[in-house]
Write a structure and sequence with these properties.
The complex is a heterodimer of chains A (about 325) and B (about 300).
Chain A lengths: L1 H24 L2 H27 L7 H16 L6 H26 L4 H21 L1 H4 L5 E2 L5 E4 L2 E4 L3 H24 L1 H11 L1 H6 L4 H27 L1 E2 L6 H14 L5 H20 L3 H15 L6 H11 L7
Antiparallel strand pairs in A: 1-4, 2-3
Helix pairs in contact in A: 1-7, 2-7, 2-10, 2-11, 2-12, 3-4, 3-5, 3-10, 4-10, 11-12, 11-13
Chain B lengths: L7 H44 L7 H17 L4 H22 L8 H23 L13 E3 L4 E3 H23 L1 H11 L1 H6 L4 H23 L10 H15 L4 H21 L2 H18 L11
Antiparallel strand pairs in B: 1-2
Helix pairs in contact in B: 1-5, 1-8, 1-9, 1-10, 2-3, 2-4, 2-8, 2-9, 3-8, 5-6, 6-8, 9-10, 10-11
The chains are: A mainly alpha (about 325), B mainly alpha (about 300).
Chain lengths: ~325, ~300
């Protein structure tokens, strides 16, 4: 257990070091590419925090990403609101958390688990996308909203302006690092252990005096809030918001990032998101309709060949080489 | 028939009555169309999701494949009825391959089933798009025109659709309650180990039941093709709604299936008159969630999950 924690921290430190060193070798465009990938990595980590810890798959996580994005866009595009960036981010987090709390309350306290939960969240994603398309007076319909300003605010003498590439990269990287570290410390502590126990046997956990539905609900809300934060960051960096951001395809992609990176590792999904987005850009430049096809194949391959993600290749090789030694 | 000359107030009243009746009957028939389709799509899902505990996210693609089968047969010069014959066959073929290649290896891994079937769903969608090209596919109904139902005039094809759906459902009920294969299915569902013990090949029964559900969904796709926008991505809406049918209605009985379909289909078509379709969808989703919260085992029966 402790060795595993140490390994995780070492990998985390390596990643942070790489993130710090990267700007010295990369130009502005490469920085923005990694920055956007990191935002999706944050999104993937938010799903992993829920899916990895509870074993319950949320199939509409992009709904929270989209809700956060739209709230951020509407807040910053409205000149009447002071401190638009700050309030937008807070609103995005609160909005996503609020929707998750309502849906989660009915599902978790109604005894909905497993596949049933997956299905309802799938439908939630479909409806969110439809709502974003059809509520065009607010959301701009199919084409979405454009011209969203970059994050900029003055707060208590602190002046933040993220219109340049490097500051925005540093801002995003710092948020991702802090959030991932925080999620990891939550999930390895008492909270995470109770969640693991719920996953194993919910009745027994309840008998020990834990309010299992409330734990699941709180985890789901926190996960959705971080997805909302990721959505808010993304629309500011991209400058636009569109219904795709809450769509089924993004919900699907984030599951692949988590599954490829390794469910339950928090860091793996971030790396998975970065790696797969690079692959996606390369493949989509070939032929845009090839990507969903490959995505489908990746799903099937993951299930049958790599159920524990890419990082498990390393563990498998290790156990292959150490095969004759006694287990430590 | 209607009294023409009258005082303004009287004329108004006599105008309102037929209009209301017209509205009520049209809404009822629209609801019945949707309910029929949902029952057919939900049937396969009730078998795989409700009874075999397999979450098949590619179920919507059986509907798509059925609709494309009709389109394909029509585009090479065949009649609609020939296409409607091809639709369940196409659904069955895809379902059978899916069961053999993927689902039967994952019975003990529910989350893996979700991921793998979703992958298959994406592959099928893109495969159809690459084969048939972008854009909606036109499917012409076998019968144009309307039928005068005294209170209202209604498209004749929709009435045929409702009739075919009801007959199919009746056939399924008879199949399950009267034939020896139906007995096998009921035995396997009740107690798998015991069924194996008395010599029923449960894997084979599952495979046939799954293929059968896929065929019915394909038929539903074929039936709905002239009314719907035939696109490779059309399946997902039916998938979500059919899952609601099964979740709300509860698993394990035809009665639950009917109750769930009436709930989801009825609510959707009534709301569609008042508000935009996506808002109606959202309300149906919320209503379904609340219904599940209040009646966790389904509206209709007390069967446990």
């Amino acid at each position: 257990m402790i060795a595993r924690d140490r390994n995780w921290l070492v990998i985390f430190a390596v990643c942070v070091t790489l993130a710090i060193v990267y700007p010295f070798f990369a130009d502005g465009y490469q920085l923005t590419v990694i920055r956007d990938a990191l935002i999706f990595g944050l999104f993937a980590a938010s799903l992993d925090f829920f899916w990895g810890r509870t074993g319950i798959l949320c199939f509409g996580h992009a709904a929270f990403f989209g809700i956060g994005g739209y709230i951020m866009a509407l807040t910053t595009l409205n000149d009447a609101i002071p401190l638009g960036s700050v309030l937008g981010i807070l609103g995005a987090i609160a909005g996503a958390a609020f929707v998750a709390a309502i849906i989660g309350y009915f599902l978790f306290f109604g005894g909905i688990r497993g596949s049933y939960f997956t299905i309802v969240t799938l439908a939630m994603g479909v409806i969110c996308q439809q709502a974003a398309v059809s509520w065009s007076s607010v959301t701009g319909g199919d084409s979405g909203l454009i011209g969203i300003p970059p994050i900029a605010f003055d707060l208590g003498g602190l002046h933040v302006d993220l219109s340049q590439d490097l500051p925005s990269y540093i801002f995003v990287a710092a948020i991702v690092a802090v959030v991932v570290l925080a999620l990891w410390s939550i999930s390895r502590g008492r909270w995470g252990m109770v969640l693991t126990a719920i996953q194993d046997n919910e009745v027994r956990v309840a008998a020990l005096g834990h309010n299992a539905p409330l734990r699941l609900l709180a985890t789901f809300v926190l996960s959705a809030a971080i997805a909302g934060l990721a959505g808010a960051l993304y629309v500011c960096m991209a400058g636009l918001v569109a219904p795709d951001l809450s769509g089924l395809l993004l919900s699907t992609e984030v599951i692949v990032w988590v599954a490829v990176g390794g469910r339950g590792t928090l860091l793996g999904p971030v790396l998975g998101a970065i790696a797969i987005q690079r692959a996606q850009q390369t493949i989509s430049s070939f032929n845009p309709s090839l990507w969903p096809l490959l995505l489908g194949c990746v799903f099937v391959i993951i299930v049958f060949v790599l159920p524990d993600g890419i990082l498990s290749i390393y563990a498998r090789l290790k156990s292959l080489f150490n095969g004759r030694r006694p287990a430590q | 028939m209607r009294p023409k000359a009258c005082s303004p107030a009287c004329a108004n009243a006599s105008q309102v009555l037929p209009d209301t009746m017209d509205f009520v009957v049209t809404t009822l028939l629209n609801a019945l169309t949707l309910i029929s389709i949902l029952m057919l799509v939900g049937l396969g899902l009730a078998i795989s999701f409700g009874l075999m505990n397999v979450t098949n996210l590619a179920h919507g693609e059986f509907v798509t494949v059925g609709a494309f089968a009709v389109y394909f047969v029509q585009s090479v010069g065949g009649s609609f009825w020939l296409g409607l014959l091809a639709a369940p066959i196409a659904g069955a073929v895809v379902g059978c391959i899916l069961e053999f290649a993927i689902i039967r290896h994952l019975y003990s891994r529910p989350v893996s089933t979700v991921l793998a079937t979703w992958g298959v769903s994406l592959i099928l969608q893109q495969g159809l798009e690459l084969t048939f090209g972008l854009g909606a596919k036109p499917v012409t109904p076998p019968i144009e025109g309307t039928l005068d139902l005294f209170f209202t005039v209604y498209p004749a094809y929709r009435l045929i659709l409702i009739a075919i759906a009801m007959l199919t459902l009746l056939g399924v009920v008879l199949l399950i309650s009267r034939t020896s294969f139906g007995l096998d299915i009921r035995t396997v569902i009740q107690n798998r180990e015991m069924a194996e013990g008395v010599g029923i090949n449960t894997r084979r029964t599952y495979a046939i039941a799954f293929t059968f559900g896929a065929a019915i969904a394909g038929l539903a796709g074929g039936l709905v093709a002239p009314l719907a926008i035939v696109l490779p991505q059309m399946g997902v809406n039916y998938l979500a709604n059919a899952f609601f049918v099964v979740i709300v209605g509860g698993v394990g009985s035809i009665g639950g299936l009917v109750a769930g379909s009436v709930f989801v289909g009825g609510l959707t078509s009534v709301l569609n008159y008042q508000i935009s379709p996506s808002l109606a969808q959202a309300i149906v989703l919320l209503a379904a969630i609340v219904a599940v919260r209040l009646r966790p085992n389904g509206l209709f029966n007390g069967a446990s999950r």
